[in-house]
Specification:
The chain is mainly alpha-helical. It contains 3 helices and no strands. Helix 2 packs antiparallel against helix 3. The longest helix has about 35 residues. It has a domain of about 55 residues.
Length: about 90
């Protein structure tokens, strides 16, 4: 009876799929556990830094950072409220 051996390509592809699924699961858990208040505070700090900056390039960069943080806070708030509504029912 001949031994069946696992093809190296199949093993490599299977390992890559397992790693990819693991990374997606970790990313989803981290995204869902984010606190919107943290991003809001970071946005406030960046906004204050932009208002106090005198260099236009630094000011523009700080405004973009504030906008990103406020956007993240809004996304996390929506997710947080949705989870709260789901668990309430």
């Amino acid at each position: 009876m001949a031994k069946k051996r696992l093809n190296k390509k199949v093993a490599l592809i299977g390992s890559a799929v397992v790693v990819l699924i693991s990374l997606v699961a970790i990313g989803a858990i981290l995204h869902l556990s984010g606190d919107p208040e943290k991003f809001s505070k970071d946005g406030d700090a960046a906004l204050m830094a932009a208002r106090n900056a005198t260099d236009e390039e630094i000011k523009e960069e700080a405004y973009k950072r504030a906008e990103r943080n406020y956007h993240k806070a809004r996304n996390h708030r929506d997710t947080f409220q949705t989870r709260r509504l789901i668990h309430r029912n």
